[in-house]
Amino acid sequence: MAKRIVIDPVTRIEGHAKISVFLDDEGNVSDAEFHVVEFRGFEKFCEGRSYAEMPGITPRICGICPVSHLLASAKAGDALMAVDIPVGADKLRRLMNLGQIIQSHALSFFHLSSPDFLLGWDTEVAKRNVFGLISANPDLARAGIRLRQFGQEIIEILGDRKIHPAWAVPGGVRSALSKTGRQRIKEWIPEAYKTTKLALDLFKSTLKTHGREVQVFGNFQSLFMGLVTEDGSWEHHGGLLRFTDSSGSVIADQLDPQNFSEFIGESVQSSSYLKSPYYKPMGFPDGMYRVGPLARLNVCERMGVPQADAELKYFKKLGRGAVTSSFLYHYARLIEILASIELVEQYMDDPDLMTDHLRAEAGINKLKGVGVSEAPRGTLFHLYEVDRNGLIQKVNLIVATGQNNLAMNRTVAQIAKHYVKGEKIQEPMLNRVEAGIRCYDPCLSCSTHALGKMPMAVSLVAPDGRVLNEVTRDG
Amino acid sequence: MAAITLTIDDKQVSAEDSQSVLSIAQEQGIAIPTLCHLEGVYDVGACRLCLVEVAGVNKLLPACTTKATEGMVVRTDTERLRKYRKITLELLFAERNHVCAICVANGHCELQTMAYNQGMDHVRYDYCFPKWDMDLTHERFGMDHNRCILCARCVRACWHIEGAGTKNVAGRGARSHIITDMFQPWGEAESCTSCGKCVMACPTGALFERGSTTGEMQRDRTTLEFIVTAREKKQWIA
Fold this sequence. Notes:
Chain A has helices spanning 42-45, 54-57, 66-81, 87-119, 130-136, 138-159, 179-208, 211-216, 293-299, 306-316, 329-347, 400-403, 405-419, 427-438, and strands spanning 3-8, 17-23, 29-36, 168-169, 172-173, 223-228, 240-244, 250-255, 264-268, 275-279, 289-290, 368-375, 378-386, 392-398, 456-461, 467-473. Chain A is α+β, with helices and mostly antiparallel strands.
């Protein structure tokens, strides 16, 4: 008889989700699904509001990556005004996005994911979290927390607050980098480098003992999508879109995000509130693509900064063509932190960041505009349609975690197939399925993650709804 | 005009018999919270925040529209008044969709400041979540009915300072709302002189300069006060 295993809730991710594992008659895993059980409704209740307000409203989607929404929203506003923003404003937005990438990646690596592979997969749940890391390796934990703080401080120095700064606006930004702010960032850079390199060394040595995880944690063929510069370098805020396949070949390049609906379709599944985007020319579900750090490093040819470029060379050797194991999202994240610090350092001597020409002024010149930015978790699209006065008629947000939805399902299925045998629900399987999801650092919204303290309920459910086996684990 | 004597918060004060309790209290440095009161235009007693206790009268009276009388004993800050002021504020917040965090007037809003000052830490009533539109048809200004508290300061500034008579209140009860001309979009209201006095008069984020983003709408009321003073002192008459 076919059965279903449910993991609910999934811990140490941003938001609420559950996992269903479907078993066939022989007790082997046939499929798995990752459900997002929250409903937010932002696209609906923004209708009727002014486009100028959107960079204030949409960051409220999330407290971890509000800056991504802020920047994508402001860019969509630029598109509606049909303006090129002042060069200083563009650089300042980029600086804030780099701060965002650093803080979010540090959070994902040190606070949420590293306890799995640094403390051991089968350490008891109550200890396998950032507090466990603090007691096992206080110096590393402190350095990781400080690295996240560095990113957060950049955001605060620019936008006056760490979370939900009202700073980027349609047409530019509201304030420049102050001299004291610049000094503060400058002084912190050496420490940030040191921590990042420590983490890189640590992860690379971990890789040697984690061959199995690299093999089964979402290691499959898919497309990858991300922004690249004109010459194919790593990009995080401007540039155009590129798709590559798992052999590493570019299948579409320099696509204008303004027309994303021509090449990205969205499929809606009844089992989840998350939409599943796909690459249109290949259809659903073959057009499955991954976004985020792994994808960005796969689509780009170089990082454009020396230290991260050296790491990228090592990274690219881990795959034939593209790097296809989602376990290596962690590694990609660290390389992106390194690149971000290098770019932040370059900006420190740039006079454009101190200018007061920061805001372009214009009315509504286009009725439809798209803003795109690379959020820590992947490419983020904001599409707004407005009336001639700038009142929002339609909103479509395509978020990174949605684009990774299909890949997360595949990852869960792959891990479950490897670790589930028969009807018995075993702890190692639960731990690894959760960790597999965590590779994507999914951000299901702004709700607080539970740091391994949330109880986990797993049920084996027969097709008629009968619960055959139930395991409850307290945090 | 005769002089009268009355007591406000145990303080003996003298005033003219045509004065309101509010204006006397203000002259004496006694702070009574207000929202719909605007210097330079007449009072309407719309917000009910300036309610005071008057000895011998059971109900609470708005200080702005209550004329002082000889021997009146007024209390402006009692447990009962604080309770009612909080209720009034909570009802104002529950009535429409204010959402301070993303409001253009965040940090510069009289309603928000008042709520802080009166110690309003939550709203005990169910929010109504009414559906109200924004009017962005005017080339310079915008109106968001979601953030309107119907104080009618804009209406009074429009009629009695600018003399244009563009703004009005239409509808009844909970559906009352500010309109321009004969309920036309603001951008089509021919009587509007685009002077912006209504925007300067507004205590919340309901009226704003177009393109303002979160917390950017700061008002400069000195212009309004300048005009009112100039007119009262007939400074424009040669």
